[in-house]
Amino acid sequence: MFALEHAIATWRQVMSRRKGLLPEDVDELEQHVRDEVAARVTAGEDVERAYRAVMAAMGSPDDIEAAYSRVYWSKMQRKGRLAPTLIQEALMIGHHALLALRNMRRSPGYTLINLTGLAVGIACCLLILLFVANELSWDRYNEHADRIVRVVMHIPDRGETIEVTPTAIAPMARRSLASVETVARYYDISRFRKVTVRVEDEAWQEAGFAYADSTIFDVFTWPFLEGSPATALVRPRTLVLTESTARRYWGTARGVTGRTVDVSGTEYEVTGVIEDIPAQSHLRFDLLASFASTHWASQEIFGSANFYTYLLIADGWTVERVQEEVDTVVEAALKAGGFPVEIQFPLQPLTDIYLVHMGRMDQVLLFAGLALLILIVASFNYVNLGTARSARRAREVGVRKVLGADNTGIARQFFAESAIMTLLAFGAGLAIMYAALPSFEALAGRPLGTDLLTSPRMLLWTAGILAVVALGAGFYPALVMTRYEPAVTLKGAQSSPGGSALFRDVLVSLQFGITVFLLVSATIVYLQMNHIRTVDTGYDREQTLVVPLADNAARRAVPTLKDQWIQDSRIEGASAMVAIPGNMRGGYGLLLPGMPPDADIKPIYASPVDPDAPAVLGLEFLAGTSFSPPAGSAGSSAAGSAGSSATGSSPLASPDSAAYEYVINEALAELAGWSPEEAIGQRMSVSGTRRMGTVRGVVRDFNFLDLRQGIEPQALFVEPEWNVLLVRLTPGAPIRDVLQNLEQSWTATTQGSPWMYSFLDDEFNAFYESEERTGRIFLVASLLAAFVALLGLTGLAAFAAEQRIREIGIRKVLGASRGQIVLLLGRSTLGRVAAGALLALPVSAWAMHTWLGRFAYRMDLSVWPFAAALAASLLVAFATVSLQALRAAGSDPAETLRAS
Amino acid sequence: MISRALATATLRPMVLALLDGRPEYGYQIISRIRKLSEGQLDWTTGTLYPFLHGLENEGLVESFWQSVDNAPRRKYYRLTPAGERALEAERAQWMEVHAMLAPLFAAAR
Questions:
Q1: What span, in angstroms and rounded, lies between the C-alpha atoms of A121 and A469?
Q2: At the N or C end, where does chain B have fewer CB atoms within 10 A?
């Protein structure tokens, strides 16, 4: 018998529970049902059929709910109930939060594991974000950053792009380019050597001395504390100082304009003081002198390139269109000048210089990837522990469902829990981040401004990452929980953990895969750095001092100093040269007699040195001998000391002489087609028809470039183009005493040129600093990832042991040993860890192979770093599980079996 | 059968026109739409009510509960001045569309 009232009451109950329907909405719908049923019955239909027809026309509850939900919020607003409704929602969230906190307090161990892991992950992410924000902010301090481009030079024939340009580019751009608002050249002389600046009675060696056009201040934003940007660098022999340089010289940055400083023998007037250049700037200097002070200022040639050229693009022009203009103008000028080589002048936007052209993007991506991996490992912990323990909460979920909670409500509860966990972890992560900031700055090799942390973009990113973590970590537990059937869980059946065990296994495997990957990478980067440090570079770098020759006084003093020092038994020898090995980058062209004059000149490297260089560097002669000692030599025991006059330390009078002597390396002999023995006595030149000379000796290849590059042809010749003085100490000499003596004689002989030195092996190591840093970062990241993964494993193992506590009790009663129980619990874990590790091995092998490809000198990839990482992770994972298993195995079966 | 898109577009002028001049409650509106369209417009009743609420949110109609002649209380809807203007705009638009299409269709025939 169909009862209309009963049917309507039931239907009402269903509709009332739907979201978006207010009680008055249900009233309205109910009246509709009654009206329509009544109308159909009047028309002669039977009540039950009428009711069913009306319900059919009504549509499904889901559709109705969806339609009501669409108008819900504006309805609340219209009725002035928006605020109360929002408060109600907020209270609901508060309720969820309260439940979440209670649940956390109930199992503090798991909460701690989750919190620690997430906090570490979040702290890493924050540090990386800060780092990335800093990297992306390079050169952005310039007001016109988006309109500044650097002109570089590209030589298609050699496939080479160099960042310096000829003198001609800037004046040409100023005259003929409509798209260019202003142009400035910048010449960094300290790229080649340091300069000596004398202020009153003090002398300073400066590595930050540059020349620039007066327009440089229109291009870059360098605020003046004193002086005027418009006139500061117009006259010859004027310069501008940074604030801290002025303080260094005079103790103040005020009232110093008009004073004079002496730069390598030339007087300059200070015409301005500017604020220190921000750390995130690719251009850095301490003193900036007027370009008009140089003789290049009057030149306009394409022949030699030493100058950075910057263009400020006029408003409304794109880089592409300016490039077209530049190409057209340059092509015409080159054609008019009859320039023989094809060259192009590409433009680089200022904001790309650091990231793209200086190759920093790699490191940014590397850091970001590492942080992401750690965060993933931490999130997996949350998911795993959450679902593994879900069985405990199955009953809670069952009761809620019976009391009318729908899946949305249950899911919300679990998302609220992950959100709260994430927020707490964020707080802890923030604290960790601040604590770790100094060490991270050391790791990254640069200071990081924390004020970027509160920039809108950063806040957005932080909020985004937190949301992703909260949703990502909450998703799977929520999915698992909503699937529980209350009828099953409430019957009290011992419910098994929710979610698929396979899924958890996969996550654990991935965690350890990531950990092993990082461990292998860290090991190999470390080994490679070690390999480089100990590789035979073909020259000696032990016990060798590098003394920069920053001014002419110092250069002139070299022969005298060498004569003095060679008397000292603690000093093996000294030699002046153009640059230290690793940095011998002077480019020349090899010419052999008999080659046709228009033949392609082979590019080679060559370096002006003094005659003692091969001995002091410890180069090994394969054939021939070193340079002949200069005429009128003091006849010392070493390969010879310098001659009497400053320029006469070379046996040659001028580059036009044909009496040059060369010491070449194997690679050059090979290039020329000689065996080492054949090479001796051959005639050659490194610069066309000038510097013609004879090969005196062939040395074994040595690394005059850095170790990422292979060994290229190199010729040493004697010429007083020196920027450094190398002093080789006798092994075991008391360094401190020697240094004192060296400094005394230096100061006396150079008439007060500042005394500075470094050690050749330190300089050598500095070349590989960025790789060292990469190595350290990998090490820290892999240890963190391992730590977080082990935390998670501890949690899972503790849970597994707890779940099987009765099984363990029974086994113990039946005579199982502790060892057997540990093995029982540990075996499955080992399987998962091994699976992840095996997956990681080929990936890391490929990644490391690629990375090592950057080095011309690389270690052989052997099996053992992989094996070691595998063994270590298995061992530590097993130990972690065993610890938990031992605790379980140590439990008293009488206790565990009685408790229910 | 009238297509879904066109039916959606028709609903708004239809409801506004039905309420022009006199207040009506939901069931009345729905049965008049059914009668007018002769089953060509297939709307589930459950979604028509939220549509009315939407018009109310826009301020085009207003509602009140009333009991007439001892009948149960029902929720009545009537046009607001804004609703009358909206109806006028709808009417103008539909007539315009009609004026555009009519000669075309006549020619095609």
A1: 10
A2: C
In this structure, the dihedral spanned by the alpha carbons of residues A483, A484, A485 and A488, taken in order and rounded to 10 degrees, is 150
A93: which 2 tokens? 């969230």
Q: Do A78 and B51 touch (CB under 8 A)?
A: no
Following DSSP, what letter does each residue of A141-199 receive, concatenated? TSTTGGGEEEE-EEEGGGTEEES-EETTHHHHHHHH-TTEEEEEEEEEGGGT--EEEEE
pLDDT-derived band at A643 (thresholds 50, 70, 90) equals: very low
CATH number for position B51: 1.10.10.10
A57/B45 touch (CB, cutoff 8 Å), yes or no = yes
pTM for this one? 0.65
Q: Give the separation between CA A4 and CA A1, rounded to whole angstroms.
A: 10
Contact B75 A31 (CB under 8 A): yes
- Token pair 């899911």: residue: A411
What would the two tokens of residue A287 be?
């003193």
Q: Say if strands A305-313 and A180-188 run parallel, antiparallel, or are unpaired.
A: antiparallel
Structure tokens at A826: 């540990």
Cross-chain CB nearest to A71 (options B44, B54, B73): B54
Contact call for residues B52 and B26 (beta carbons, < 8 A): yes
Would the CB atoms of A70 and B50 count as touching at under 8 Å? Answer: yes
Q: How far apart are the first and last CA of chain A?
A: 50
Distance (Å, rounded) from C-alpha A699 to C-alpha A771?
29
The rounded distance, in Å, linking the Cα atoms of A305 and A186 is: 12
Provide the residue range defining the domain that includes B90: 4-108
| Helix, strand or coil, per DSSP, at residue A63 | helix
| Distance from C-alpha of A743 to C-alpha of A739, rounded to nearest angstrom | 6
Residue A670, amino acid: E
Judged by CB atoms closer than 8 Å, whether chains meet at B47 and A57 is answered as: no
Q: Are A786 and A873 in contact (CB under 8 A)?
A: yes
Each residue's pLDDT tens digit, A268-318: 999 999 999 988 888 989 999 999 888 877 777 776 677 899 999 998 888
Question: Which helix (H) or strand (E) is A240 found in, with range?
Answer: strand A238-242
> Which of B30, B44, B52 is most worth mutating to test chain A (most A CB atoms within 10 A of its CB)?
B44
Residue A88 or residue A159, greater confidence: A88
pLDDT at A686: 84
**Chain B residues in contact with A14 (beta carbon < 8 A):** none
CA B40 to chain centre: 15
- Asked if residues A131 and A355 have their Cβ atoms less than 8 Å apart, the reply is no
Q: How far is CA A520 from CA A3, A226, A230, A530, A875, in A?
A: 74, 55, 57, 15, 15
> How far lies A476's CA from each of A108, A388, A489, B4, in Å?
21, 11, 19, 38
A-interface mutation test, from B11, B28, B30, B49, most A Cβ less than 10 A away: B49
Query: How many residues does this entry show for chain A?
Result: 900
Q: Which of A657, A680, A763, A670 is nearest to A711 (CA)?
A: A670
The DSSP-derived string for A565-587 is HHTSTTEEEEEEESS-TT----E
Residue carrying structure tokens 């033949």: A599
Say if CB A626 and CB A639 are below 8 A apart: yes
B43-62 tens-digit pLDDT: 778 878 999 999 998 899 99
Helices (H), A567-652: 613-617
Angstrom distance (rounded) from CA A33 to CA A7: 11
Cα(A852)–Cα(A44) distance, integer angstroms? 89
Q: Which residue of A has its CA nearest to B75?
A: A28
CB A873 within 8 A of CB A790: no
Number of domains in chain B: 1
Q: Which residues contact A111 (CB under 8 A, 6 or more apart)?
A: A104, A105, A421
ipTM of the complex: 0.90
